[in-house]
Amino acid sequence: MRRSRVYTQIDRLAGWLLPPRCVLCRGAGQRPAYDLCVECEAEIPMVPNPCRRCGLPQEGGEGGEGGCAQCRALDLPYSRCVAPWAYEFPLTQLVQALKYEGALANARVFGTRMVVQALREQADPWRGAALLVPMPLHPSRLVERGFNQSHEIARVVSRLLDLRLAGSGLRRLRSTAPQVGLTRQQRAGNLSGAFAADSSLVAGRHVVLIDDVVTTGSTAIAAASTLRAAGAESIAVWAVARALDRVVARAPG
Ligand SMILES: [Zn+2]
Ligand SMILES: [Zn+2]
User: Fold this and answer.
1) Most CB contacts within 10 A, which of 74, 98, 210, 244?
2) So where are the chain's domains?
3) What spacing in Å lies between the alpha carbon of 61 and ligand 2's midpoint?
4) Helix (H) or strand (E) holding 85
5) What are the pLDDT digits (tens) for 143-194?
């Protein structure tokens, strides 16, 4: 029995022994093992009519695999973006509690929700031999926090979809200043060379880059560009949420 299968069994057992509990209201969650109740889930805003390629809301009709009017002509380094929720209250609280208070139950909710969305959207790369790579934290921040929230979410996705997780597929070489408030040129300078990918892990693979929240998009673009340069066959970005009020990056640079 594979290790991930064993964990799935343990999850099932835990879900049976300990009924799921909502991370927002502490009431009963959704069986078998989703720690969010139907009522609270309905309070979390979704990204309206997201484009499958860039993940941003699109005006009018469905953007197919080729993208929407805003992203079709852009050379995005990733081909899919799955980010079901808008980064707004009350989700902001859950993300912050995960990052700063170590509320790992929230990572289970996020990973589960991402998988549901990916299955719903038939986000293909995970079929077969996809490789999960978490968005890395800078080592100094990792020491400070004790864990990487994206890695914790990726663990859940890995278990649910039985996909390999490469925690060292991508490394952060240096800290970057917060992206919000910088000009386009400042953002590009801030992120160039911020990441290094392990080509022995990612070359020729369909990589699913797991992030918690996509804010401006610059970090996901820089990380995906690094994976592409290291020979990844395709890259999809899966995040739990998208910050819709801070969308500034639509293309590399
Ligand atoms: Zn609830
Ligand atoms: Zn688009």
Assistant:
1) 210
2) 1-43, 46-246
3) 11
4) strand 85-86
5) 999 999 999 999 999 999 889 999 999 999 976 666 666 666 666 666 678 9
Q: What SS3 class is residue 94? A: helix
- The DSSP element (H or E) to which 131 belongs, if any, is strand 130-134
| Nearest listed ligand to the Cα of residue 30 | 1
Give pTM, 2 decimals. 0.86
| Ligand number with the minimum distance to the CA of 36 | 1
In degrees and rounded to multiples of 5, residue 181 shows phi and psi of 95, -10
**179 with 216: CB under 8 angstroms?**
yes
Give the residue among 239, 240, 169, 179 at the shortest CA–CA distance from 205. Answer: 169
CA of 25 to the centre of ligand 1 (A): 4
* Omega before 50 within 30 of 0, i.e. cis: no
Tell me how far the alpha carbon of residue 142 lies from the centroid of ligand 1, in angstroms: 30
C-alpha distance from residue 182 to each of 54, 124, 138 (Å): 21, 34, 20
Q: Which ligand is nearest to the CA of 35?
A: 1
Considering the segment(s) 46-246 as one domain, its CATH architecture is 3-Layer(aba) Sandwich (3.40)
pLDDT digits (tens, 9 = 90+) for 84-134: 999 999 999 999 999 999 999 999 999 999 999 998 887 655 566 799 999
